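Give me the fold.
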Amino acid sequence: SMPQPKLELGKFDWTIDEAVEISSKLKYNQNQKPAEGMVVRNITPKPGNEISFKVLNNKFLLKNDD
């Protein structure tokens, strides 16, 4: 599978609009094509406090609309 771009941050404090804008700029490392989006997860989740969600890249979705 293709290596995924990775961002490691101390704190997620973006608005939804900021997160969507960031995901629209991500590219796959190998071929530099636009990424589908990004997955946000806790770096060190505590039991019962796991967070995982995807921020989609709208440009990817529009470009690949069949």
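Residues 16-23 form the longest helix (8 residues).
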